[in-house]
Protein: Peptidoglycan DD-metalloendopeptidase family protein
Amino acid sequence: MKLGWGSKKFTLVIIPDANRSVRQFEMLNSIPYIAATAVFVLILVTLVLFFFQGRTAVIADQLKVKIDSQELVYTHTVEDKNETIEQLQNEVIKLSQQTSEMKARIDDIRKMEDEVRSITGSTKIVAAAEGTNTLDSAMGGISHPATNNDVNELLSQTKTQLSDMDLELAALQQSITDTKHKALAIKEQLRVTPNIWPVDSHRITSGFGLRQDPFTRRPSFHSGYDISAPANSEVSVTADGIVRITGSDSERGNHIVVDHSNGLQTMYMHLNKILVQKNDSVQKGQLIGLVGSTGRSTGYHLHYEVLQNGVSVDPLPYLK
Ligand SMILES: [Zn+2]
Structure:
């Protein structure tokens, strides 16, 4: 009977040394093939494992590089954010300082406005925030890193200060508007109130009140000021107004009466020439006539008279 592959045998002979007997083993001829295949598979598996191990190491390295790179990015991001936070904190500090400076300037404006108001006699409008404590702008001391709480506190104070300033500015604006209206009213009042001399000359030859009449030599009441001036000196109206009378008679000579406000009138007598007409609007300082000696006069002079509600009053308070 013919044997197949499975029936063939190999003999394995082992010779230990010369003094010992040779040992031999018989085995089927398929075993070496199986062993070779096993070794091959083992080598293949080992190679595959090496390959995957290498591959895994590469991936791990790549991941490590990626993680390192991400970590670097995050580190930079955190640094950038910290820097941004510091910048913002410095901006808060700067804003606070600017707010304090602005508050000081508002205080200065308020003081100036107080002075103007005292001149115009306006009523003070009290700011809601007036008297609020302000931040001290003085600098110095030991440097301590500011904490978030410090900056938050400063930000809170700055917000309060800005809010107070907003209220104060609103009150100040209202107060200044009030003062402006008052000043304009005073300006208007001054414009229509006699307060300048009617001629350049200030030489008073006869005052207001009782005197000896220059013609009769008897005591009489003089209702104005006689101001001596060269013939044809310019006569100016002493306040804005309307020319009420232009006329001529044996007493007053050529004369002008001008209406002002508050029942005030001014009268200019003994003129050589009248340069305005009845109902003319005239402005303070405007030329209205020339000095003469017409009417009841002893020489070139201007009789200047101020009337309040039709009654002659001392012109002195109305002369600058
Ligand atoms: Zn007179």
Observations:
- The chain has two helices and 14 strands.
